[in-house]
């Protein structure tokens, strides 16, 4: 796959665009503008400008094409969700709405021994969370719950318990990494972190690194040199320099 060229100091409608890292340039149109903006500590408008300048459409999640619909019922909801980059709940909702039967569960899932403690979770904890805890398919949980006549957890109700170890990760690891480890959405991680008043990892690192000495170096040395010393991207240095109204270094 051809890589998107990395542009430095490019223009857009008369405005100088902020610099993005190579990784960010390659992810344009593949992830949402808001997510990329948060990672690069720039505005969503700047990401949108870069994306449009390269003629890339915005990232669309949950776009049900004939090919993606054809996967329903032919593999587990979690497998379909992984392929399409959406949640298993979204796949389950789409499949049931279309009246498609769930994919045949494995022998291990059929024979899962439900303990009294696990049965107590049904209707109190989301099906996806129970499936994650037990290592089984979400449809297995939903089927068991339906057989017992237990209603699902209401949409929008936060039921996932956060352990002390998981809370300790907030602000110490990137939100995306925490979401990957806990197998939950990044949005839930951000919501939990913000509810506890914890700053994200990037903001914490930048706050520590941009002291009076570092700010005084802006414009007196190349951005690359400052970035190497602070162990941050060149784009982050250039953005900080522009925020401070400092011109770029010229030999």
The level of helicity is 40-55%
What portion of residues belong to β-strands? under 5%
Number of helices: 17
What is the string of SSEs from the N terminus onward?
Answer: EEHHHHHHHHHHHHHHHHH
- Widest sheet, order of strands: 1-2
Low-confidence blocks of residues:
1-15
Q: N- to C-terminal separation?
A: 37 Å
Count of beta strands: 2
Any idea what the shape is?
A: elongated
Mean pLDDT across all residues, rounded?
76
- Global structural class: mainly alpha
- Total count of domains: 4
Radius of gyration: 23 Å
Note the main sheet: 2 strands, antiparallel
Summarize the structure.
The protein contains 17 helices and 2 strands. The protein has 251 residues and is mainly α.
Explain what this protein looks like in three dimensions.
It is a single chain. The chain is mainly alpha-helical. It has helices at residues 22-26, 33-40, 44-53, 66-69, 77-84, 88-97, 107-110, 116-121, 127-134, 138-147, 164-169, 175-182, 186-195, 201-209, 212-217, 223-230, 234-243; strands spanning 11-12, 15-16. It has four domains: 11-53; 61-103; 105-161; 210-243. 52% of the residues lie in helices and 2% in strands. Helix 5 (77-84) crosses helix 6, helix 9 (127-134) crosses helix 10 (138-147) and helix 16 (223-230) crosses helix 17. The radius of gyration is 23 Å and the shape is elongated. The two termini are 37 Å apart. The model is unreliable at 1-15 (pLDDT under 50).
């Amino acid at each position: 796959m051809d890589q998107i060229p990395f542009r430095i100091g490019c223009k857009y409608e008369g405005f100088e665009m902020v610099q993005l890292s190579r990784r960010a340039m390659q992810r344009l149109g593949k992830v949402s503008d808001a997510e990329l903006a948060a990672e690069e500590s720039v505005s969503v408008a700047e990401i949108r400008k870069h994306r449009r300048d390269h003629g890339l459409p915005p990232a669309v999640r949950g776009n049900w094409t004939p090919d993606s619909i054809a996967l329903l019922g032919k593999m587990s909801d979690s497998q379909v969700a992984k392929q399409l980059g959406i949640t298993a709940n979204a796949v389950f909702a789409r499949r049931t709405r279309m009246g498609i039967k769930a994919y045949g569960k494995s022998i291990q899932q059929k024979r899962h021994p439900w303990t009294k403690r696990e049965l107590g979770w049904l209707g109190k904890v989301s099906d996806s969370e129970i499936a994650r805890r037990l290592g089984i398919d979400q449809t297995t949980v939903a089927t068991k719950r339906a057989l017992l006549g237990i209603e699902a957890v209401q949409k929008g109700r936060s039921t996932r318990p956060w352990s002390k170890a998981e809370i300790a990760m907030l602000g110490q690891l990137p939100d995306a990494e925490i979401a990957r480890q806990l197998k939950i959405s990044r949005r839930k991680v951000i919501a939990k972190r913000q509810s506890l008043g914890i700053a994200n990892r990037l903001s914490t690192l930048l706050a520590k690194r941009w002291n009076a000495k570092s700010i005084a170096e802006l414009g007196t040395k190349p951005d690359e040199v400052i970035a190497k010393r602070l162990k941050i991207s060149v784009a982050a240095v250039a953005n900080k320099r522009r925020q401070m109204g400092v011109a770029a270094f010229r030999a």
